[in-house]
Design a protein that fits this description.
With 465 residues, this protein is an alpha/beta fold. It has two domains: 138 residues, 3-Layer(aba) Sandwich (Leucine Aminopeptidase, subunit E, domain 1), CATH 3.40.220; 312 residues, Zn peptidases (Aminopeptidase, 3-Layer(aba) Sandwich). Helices cover 34% and strands 22% of the residues. The chain contains 15 helices and 19 strands. The strands form four sheets. It has an eight-stranded mixed sheet, sandwiched between helices. A six-stranded mixed sheet has the order 1-6-5-2-4-3. Helix 3 packs parallel to helix 4, helix 4 packs antiparallel against helix 9 and helix 9 packs parallel to helix 15. The protein is elongated. The protein starts with a strand and ends with a helix. The structure holds ligand BES, manganese (II) ion and zinc ion. The site of zinc ion has 5 residues, from strand 9.
Length: 465
């Protein structure tokens, strides 16, 4: 979808013109007065569609309620515009224009809203979905839209990769994609090197699969970086559970267990377009968790890169094992901050549902800053506790720790496990996106499938520093 900023969207001949109305302002847009029935009150999310019968340059006018003007925020703008855009898509509109009356800056949220509405993973359908070809916007600075386009590109890259079947999005495929980005230096470590580097936890998880593991390190450099950070994405290209195999219903969507990796790839792909003044290391320990003949077993003792030993209590708690070595690697780079993003625990999904991702970390201000950036970006994060109680449950009789605790408080336990692999001088935040990365039914502006969660928050975080 192409986005064009023009002088006056009202005058352009297009398939659908989207206009808005506030509940508390009787005359927001004269087209509303001209076309809308009295029953259209402007309540948030309310829509109506009218064929203009040649009375306007646009074939259809789609009006959407924006609710009370003093309650408007970026999320409402994005969601409501996405709702109107879905109507336009149903009408098979190819050219869509926005004539939005609001004091707020709406450009980025509007552009993102339409793009989310227009996203379909239809690569494998012989009959493709209808797509909007051009979006016209006015009253928006040109550079706002220039920023919107790569954000959407990063999101769509992440969503496509997480939606792809595991047979396509293999560790090797992720490595190949990581090596194709402009302005990014990428190193890929193969199985033998992974073992030689001492990544005993990551390597163990990969052993049950025929697909070779890949440890991927992408680097965006800046000549005088104001700081150096690492973003790590959980890269389980498929999580069958391993020998502690998952039941069919739980395994069904486990191709999405590389959503964290997909987020990191999406971001690294577009970074050079923004040229931020910080160094960004994108790190993925990519593998599959399978119950093959050489699979790691419950009771095995693994040694992570920092020398700590782990008793395998459950082979389905594999994400934290791969992340343990990735966190050690990132800390050894001497970066100032590390953020990991992972579809880590069903427990986080139970706690927060699809409404918010979990966040934990070792520095209160750092965690708060990311939560704030999430709110600004349209992604919610909710802090979960990091209490010693959760760590105590993972004590092992024969190793430094076990990879799981009790049945309860699983998201916090996983957070406490990861903390063992982060050095104290590094600011660290862990994002658990198990509930938000992949939707089984539509939620707000998103349809079923991958959401690209984390892309907007982390990209904005990078761009704001
Ligand atoms: N990939 C799963 C977590 C997950 C669950 C992601 C549902 C998305 C949706 C993770 O590897 C896993 O299996 N976690 C286990 C941990 C348990 C064995 C301690 C879980 O949450 O059940
Ligand atoms: Mn698992
Ligand atoms: Zn997993």
């Amino acid at each position: 979808m192409d986005i064009q900023v023009i002088e006056n969207t009202r005058d352009i001949s297009c398939d659908a013109l989207i206009i808005n109305k506030f509940e508390d302002e009787p005359t927001t847009n004269e087209l509303v007065n001209l076309f809308a029935p009295e029953s259209f009150t402007g309540k948030s999310g309310e829509t109506f569609v009218i064929h203009t019968q040649g009375q306007q340059p646009a074939k259809y006018v789609i009006a959407v309620g924006f609710g009370k003007s003093n309650e408007l925020n970026g999320d409402k703008i994005r969601e409501n515009i996405a709702k109107a855009a879905k109507k336009a898509i149903e009408l098979k509109a190819e050219t869509v224009a926005l004539d939005i009356t609001t004091d707020q800056t709406f450009g980025i949220q509007a552009g993102i809203g339409v793009s989310i509405a227009d996203y379909h993973f239809d690569k494998y359908k012989t009959k493709k979905e209808h797509h909007i070809s051009t979006l016209y916007i006015s009253n928006v600075p040109e550079d706002t839209i220039k920023k919107c386009i790569p954000i959407v590109e990063a999101m769509n890259t992440a969503r496509n990769l997480a939606n792809e079947p595991a047979a396509y999005a293999t560790p090797s495929k992720l490595a190949e994609i990581a090596q194709s980005f402009d302005g990014i230096e990428t190193k890929v470590f193969e199985s033998a090197q992974i073992q030689k580097m001492g990544m005993g936890a990551f390597y163990a998880v990969s052993k049950g699969s025929e697909e070779p593991p890949k440890f991927i390190h992408m680097k965006y450099s800046s000549p005088n970086p104001s700081k150096r950070i690492a973003i790590i994405g959980k890269g389980l290209c498929f999580d069958s559970g391993g020998l502690d195999i998952k039941p069919a219903a739980s395994m069904l969507t486990m191709r999405d267990d590389m959503s964290g990796a997909a987020c990191v790839l999406g971001i690294m792909k577009v970074l050079s377009k923004f040229k931020p003044n910080i160094e960004v290391n994108g790190i993925i320990a990519a593998c599959e968790n399978m119950p093959g003949c050489s699979a790691y077993k419950p009771g095995d003792i693994l040694t992570a890169k920092n020398g700590k030993t782990i008793e395998v209590d459950n082979t389905d708690a594999e994400g934290r094992l791969t992340l343990a070595d990735a966190l050690c690697y990132a800390c050894e780079l001497g970066v100032d901050e590390v953020i990991d993003i992972a579809t880590l625990t069903g427990a986080c999904m139970v706690a927060l549902g699809t409404a918010a991702s979990g966040i934990m970390g070792n520095n209160e201000d750092f965690v708060k800053e990311i939560i704030k950036m999430g709110t600004f970006s349209g992604e919610k994060f909710w802090e979960l506790p990091m209490w010693q109680d959760y760590r105590d449950n993972m004590n092992s009789d024969i190793a430094d720790m076990k990879n799981t605790g009790t049945r309860y408080g699983g998201a916090s336990a996983a957070g406490m496990f990861l903390k063992e692999f982060v050095t104290d001088d590094v600011k660290w935040a862990h994002l658990d996106v198990a509930g938000t990365a992949f939707l089984e039914s539509p939620h707000r502006e998103f349809g079923k499938g991958a959401t690209g969660v984390g892309v907007r928050t982390l990209l904005n975080y990078i761009l704001c520093h």
